[in-house]
Amino acid sequence: MAIGWAGISDELRREVGESNHKNWIEPLECLEINDGVVRFRAPSRFVGDWVKRNYHDQILTLIRKEGSDVTRLDFVVSTVAATPAKSVTPPAESPAPATAMGEDVLQGVVLDQKLTFDNFVVGKPNELAHAAARRVATGGPVTFNPLFLYGGVGLGKTHLMQAIAWELTEKRPDLQVLYLSAEKFMYRFVQALRDREIMDFKNIFRSVDVLMVDDVQFIAGKESTQEEFFHTFNALVDQNKQIVMSADRAPGEIKDLEARISSRMQCGLVVDLHPTNYELRLGILQRKAAHFAQSYGAVKISDGIFEFLAHRISNNVRVLEGALQRLFAFSSLIGQEVTMDMVQDCLSDILRSSERRVTVEEIQRKVAEHFNLRLSDMLGPKRTRTIARPRQIAMYLSKELTSRSLPEIGRRFGGRDHTTILHGVRKVEEMRSTDSQLNEDIELLRRLLES
Ligand code: ADP
Ligand code: MG
Fold first, then answer.
1. CA-nearest residue, atom 26 of ligand 1
2. Which one of 60, 115, 347, 390 has the lowest number of neighbouring Cβ atoms within 10 Å?
């Protein structure tokens, strides 16, 4: 390198202060000087742009003072090799050690290269969420703000959010897009408080064009983080900047989330990712198989394997994906076709643990569908027989097919008392011995739910 970047960086520390230096200057890597242009590598476009906007001239002056004849600074974003695609941060990840924080203030921006729209398989259960995500990803005028995606674990929330981020990065390079987990948001906030950098923190978050916060249920019960999040949120909405959020449940159902925050979250578009169905799982398996073939080489797979997996591995796409990956790894290692025997052998743990676990919510949905009722009636107070009977059947099935206790089931049935649930369960048990139609209905529903 033709310039003494280390020295210049030190000089900058004095000029911009310790914390700015840590956040913006330290993450830069000076690559080369060519034709009067000094090229830096920044960990994200956001950092690069920020430095360019705020410190360009200052840095330039210092370099010139050293005697180099430069006219401009250029920032490239870390290439694939420099930032290995890292898997999506699991929500339960414990915060990194405090000292690591300053190294890259925007660490959360590292996106997984696999999580693009191209790799997202669309089916009935996720088509609405997908369409909404696509819309936001055009970067056009903000139509719904925020976009709130919710759904169970492993159904593709993070995938869709990162797909939005990728697409925006490509199509609207002029926009500052920040994607991070709610946990990271909190972590940075706490760090900023501790280091008295709260103004920097506010500036960063209020200067983005698109803010995406994954797993916002995480901030529930964390008062000051909620408060700060609320202000950030409002500031961005006021500036008509797009916000995208995800959570494992609907805003109104997040416990310990302040009402004013949850109601704010609901004022845009709230869409849920439904549990996957058989067709979607099959589609995903086929897509992922093509993908794995690229890294493991072509692997021969016996007929019926995908169907079996799609049938047996319930809801969570992450588990489905893991199972397939294991089969590919195993098969390519021993050079044999993936057969049913291999599947049973290799995946016995997964198959065992994914013995269908049905949720009360699914039961309610299926029963309501079957009897042509609205889900709200199922949970509501109406006592007419056409509603009360299916409701009791749903209670009965919840008791039979899930491990929930009566009070837990009661809570999920619009906050009913456990004695009401018990009464319903007994009633259905009683009737089963005399009412063959009811019996048939129940068996059908059970099969549907367990498939
Ligand atoms: P969530 O954030 O909802 O818990 P993720 O987005 O992390 O779930 O998805 C879990 C895994 O399943 C990821 O590897 C993701 O790529 C994959 N996945 C989920 N839904 C789909 C889909 N519709 N098409 C392709 N892959 C999917
Ligand atoms: Mg996620």
1. 120
2. 60
Residues in the chain: 451
CA 245 from centroid of its chain's CA atoms:
9
Cut 0.70: pTM above it: no
- In this structure, which ligand is nearest to the CA of 325? 1
Q: Which ligand is nearest to the CA of 160?
A: 1
Q: How far apart are CA 341 and CA 318, in angstroms?
A: 23
- Residue pair 152/217 in contact (Cβ under 8 Å)? The answer is no
For ligand 1, is residue 217 a contact (CB within 6 Å)?
no
Q: Could you give the domains of the chain?
A: 5-85 (3.30.300.180), 117-272 (3.40.50.300), 278-353 (1.10.8.60), 360-450 (1.10.1750.10)
* Type of residue numbered 313: I
pLDDT tens digit sequence for 148-199? 999 989 999 999 999 999 999 899 988 889 999 999 999 989 988 888 888 8
Closest by CA to 167, choosing from 132, 107, 117, is 117
Amino acid letter, residue 84: P
The pLDDT tens digits of the residues spanning 108-148 come to 457 888 999 999 999 999 999 999 999 999 998 888 999 99
| CA–CA gap between residue 270 and residue 211 (Å, rounded) | 16
